[in-house]
Write a structure and sequence with these properties.
Low-confidence stretches: none
CATH topology: Rossmann fold
Mean pLDDT: 92
Radius of gyration: 16 Å
Distance between the termini: 22 Å
Shape: globular
CATH class: Alpha Beta
Number of strands: 6
Length: 177
């Protein structure tokens, strides 16, 4: 099976980066659109730079869980990152440096088109608008973040709070444990 995985907020801890850069408590972020928190577009552009991406910490248990999942499924990282020319190269380097297994990486391409082109059967996502779009064409695991807790039931979705849940859901040998 082909598994799509978003990066920021799913495997890369963007919450702590937001906290450090903007001095905002991540628990207070209730909308994916940070401009609704009073952050200007200029500040967002300043935030989304190579250093921010390079310094993000991986989300707890993400790399280990994906390593196990990759024994059974193909892994496709699909990110909206497109802020500068070398973003894909830097993203691949970050994934490798943090021990992530993957078959392919997409950056800045329309996620729905990638999912359709590659035949992705599950995608793990945290962005509410992408969750709604993608659940129309494939199964979505909603990786719980404060900005997506208001999403009610959607067809083709399930919710996970941490990577151990996702591993148990996608790995046949983990279900009994």
């Amino acid at each position: 099976m082909k598994i799509g995985i978003d990066i920021d907020g799913v495997v890369a801890d963007i919450s702590n980066s937001i906290k450090e850069f903007f001095n905002i408590n991540p628990e207070k972020i209730k909308d994916y659109d940070l401009t609704k928190q009073g952050i200007t577009q200029e500040k967002l552009i300043e935030f989304l730079n190579p250093q921010t991406y390079k310094n993000m910490e991986p989300i707890k248990d993400a790399a280990e869980s994906i390593k196990e999942i990759s024994k059974y499924h193909q892994i496709y990282f699909i990110s909206a990152r497109n802020q500068y020319k070398e973003v894909k190269e830097h993203t691949i380097q970050w994934l490798q440096n943090n021990g992530f297994q993957f078959d392919k990486v997409y950056c800045g391409e329309d996620k729905k088109k990638v999912v359709q082109k590659e035949g992705i059967e599950f995608i793990i996502e945290d962005n509410p608008s992408e969750i709604k779009r993608l659940s129309q064409i494939t199964r979505v695991i909603i990786f719980t973040q404060t900005w997506n807790t208001n999403i009610g039931y959607l067809k083709n979705t399930t919710r996970a709070i941490e990577w151990g849940e996702i591993k148990r859901y996608l790995c046949p040998n983990e279900k009994e444990q």
